[in-house]
Amino acid sequence: MHELHYIEPDGSFGPAEQGYWHFHMHTYCLLAILEYALGTGDEEMLGLARRGFEHGRASGDALLGYFPENSGPNCGLQTTELCEVADMIALGLKLSAAGAGDYWDDVDRWIRNIFAEGQMTPARSVLLQRHASSLPLTAVDYNAQMPGGALPSGYHTTDRVIERNIGGFAGWTQPNDWGIPGIMHCCTGNGTRTLYHIWEHILTYADGNLRVNLLLNRASPWVDVDSHIPYTGQVDVKIKKELDLAIRIPQWVEPGETRCRVSGAERALRFEGRYAQVGAVQSGDVVTLSFPIAERTETVWHPQDFEKQGQKY
Fold this sequence. Notes:
Elements (H helix, E strand, L loop, with lengths): L20 E2 H18 L2 H16 L11 E2 L10 H16 L6 H12 L6 H12 L5 H6 L16 H4 L20 H17 L1 E4 L2 E4 L5 E2 L3 E5 L6 E6 L3 E6 L10 E4 L2 E2 L3 E3 L2 E7 L4 E5 L12 H4 L7
Parallel strand pairs: 4-8
Antiparallel strand pairs: 1-2, 3-4, 5-6, 6-7, 7-13, 8-12, 9-10, 9-13, 11-12
Helix pairs in contact: 1-2, 1-3, 2-3, 3-4, 3-8
């Protein structure tokens, strides 16, 4: 008799009683498995978390960071909840920091392409307000569609809805669509928690050694990181304490094309993997890493297009 697991030993999601899996419920489980593994040193559970993450990565678009709300053989067209994106970013960060894989470039793309674009900002709220004003449905119309009829008084409001959701995360996004019909606040909870995980993992410091893992802006007691990406291939690291510095360059940067200056003076670099070893720096130094940046065009079929191409999703 086949034994069923919510996360199968190979990392795949199961069981699929209805022919599909809810992506977030499985990645949420993987986050719990990973936290347990990191807290106890359980290598078996760490391996399972890694395999589950890689299964999730293969179930969506790993270039964009677009992961479907549901996946499986009987799924039709799917949008993505920001829950899925947030979970995959958190898993990738924690696995990379633990040395259980190198997913820094994955999470960097996902943060920039889908995650950051999925948060309700003041500028985006203006656009949504314009869209909302053109919709034919009213709050009463939405209420009439609820199972069991209208919601009781106190469970809904039309008062400054968009304004009061600034900072929240979209519920049903497409790659180029913010997420009409709206927000599910599970996405806001998971999204805001992942904001912390991103901030936490931009850099790591231990025993006088600091590593910049992601070229994103971050202030800290040791350094301030100012990134010029995506406009210019440059990152400035302002040193606050004496330390040894290493900066991870993105996958699309060639080590030989990377230039380093420390307070204006050229410094030769050596590399350990993707990390440029800057070496000893002093309080008050400004380290500038620069490299070419370019644009490229790729044609990507996201999940809503797969059936048009005769492919199962």
